[in-house]
Amino acid sequence: MTVVRKAISEDFHAIYPLFAEFNNPNLTRNDWQQLFNNCFESDEGFCGYLMEHNGDIVGYIGMLFSKRIIGGIEKKFCNLTGWIVKKEFRSKSLLLLFPALKMTDHVLTDFSPSREAQTILKNFGFNELESIVHISLPVINPFKLFFNKPALFSHTKDIQNELLSFERLNKIFNDHLQFKCKHLLIKTNTGLCYIVYTKVRRKKIPMAQLHFISNPQVFTDYIDAIKFFLIRTHGIFIILIDSRFITKRPSFSIEFKLPIPRLFKSKSLSTREVDGLYSEFIALNL
């Protein structure tokens, strides 16, 4: 008999063997366990749904819950991740998705769906969140670098002190401290920009995958200083920027079309209001 029930943290050891089918050597057992640790301290009490057949775990869909203040209104988010079903049970895959579709009071996201999942999710009302990534190349304008210098902060205590008067940004910073993601704060005469990113490798090249930019204008104006900082301190030569995070394509960058777009489902939010925080990108350091 096949049944679907809520997955809780204690189910991780039984579910873990399924993740081998993702064939991602960069993710360890401890990384996957983050999906089961209530890492964003939600009060939902579960971390997804699992499918059991005669006592064996044959399917799973992860759910990372969070609450965000968007436009002064609290919004509930559910990031779908790790949707996987053993081959012989894939005809029943939708049984794992149906509970999520009933969460009509949540903003649903899936940032890395498979091609099959993309087709299914679009059929159930998901829309494209992002299809273009700007690849910022390690070319720096020396004039902007030396005559347009901001103050940059990357140490925890420095950023905490600078964000004390910014309640929303301070909460984001503290909520993400436990993870491997990195933080950068740019302070200028025209404003402040707080960035959250992960250091990743694509084709063995270290890159910064940006997940949040608080002030797109400051980011664009001072991207040369940001590039120089990342090269000098982390050996990162390439910056990956989802196009919705900024208003114009950075200089010395190329556009890359995602093979499978990021998806979301929301009654009230636009694409620009949905970032990559509180998600699998952060929990798994993707």
Strand arrangement, major sheet: 1-2-3-4-5-12-6-11-10-9-8-7
Which ranges are low-confidence, i.e. pLDDT below 50, for 5 or more consecutive residues? none
Binned, the helix content reads 10-25%
Annotated CATH topology of the largest domain: Aminopeptidase
Overall number of strands: 12
H/E series: EHHEEEHEHEHEHHEEEHHEEH
Q: What is the CATH homologous superfamily assignment of the largest domain?
A: Gcn5-related N-acetyltransferase (GNAT)
Our estimate of the beta-strand percent is 35-45%
The radius of gyration computed from the alpha-carbon positions, rounded to a whole number of angstroms, is 20 Å
Describe this structure in words.
The structure is a single chain. By secondary structure, the protein is of the alpha+beta class. It folds into 2 domains: 2-130, 3-Layer(aba) Sandwich (Aminopeptidase); 138-251, Aminopeptidase (3-Layer(aba) Sandwich). The protein contains 10 helices and 12 strands. The chain has helices at residues 12-15, 29-33, 94-101, 115-123, 142-147, 156-163, 167-175, 216-221, 223-234, 280-283, and strands at 2-6, 48-53, 56-70, 73-85, 106-110, 127-136, 151-153, 182-188, 191-202, 205-213, 238-242, 253-265. Strands 1-2-3-4-5-12-6-11-10-9-8-7 form a 12-stranded mixed β-sheet, with helices on both faces. Strand 3 and strand 4 form a beta hairpin. The protein starts with a strand and ends with a helix. The mean pLDDT is 93.
